[in-house]
Amino acid sequence: MDAVVLAQLINLAPILSEDKLALTANLVTNLSARLSD
User: How many domains, the chain?
Assistant: First the structure.
């Protein structure tokens, strides 16, 4: 995973702290799907 994506995850996590695990999982899943296409 590249640094830009990691930075986005780190920036988003505190905003939605209650859902950060779900948010991260969803973003990773979506990115993985895009990268594999």
Answer: 1
Burial status of residue 29 (CB atoms within 10 A of its CB: 0-12, 13-18, 19 or more): exposed
The parent domain of residue 28 ranges over 3-36
What lies within 8 Å, CB to CB, of 8 at 6+ separation is: 27
Angle at 35 between CA 29 and CA 36, to 5 degrees: 90
Query: pTM for the whole thing?
Result: 0.43
Task: Tell me the pLDDT tens digit for each residue of 10-21.
Answer: 777 666 566 777
Residues 31 and 5 sit within 8 Å (Cβ to Cβ): yes
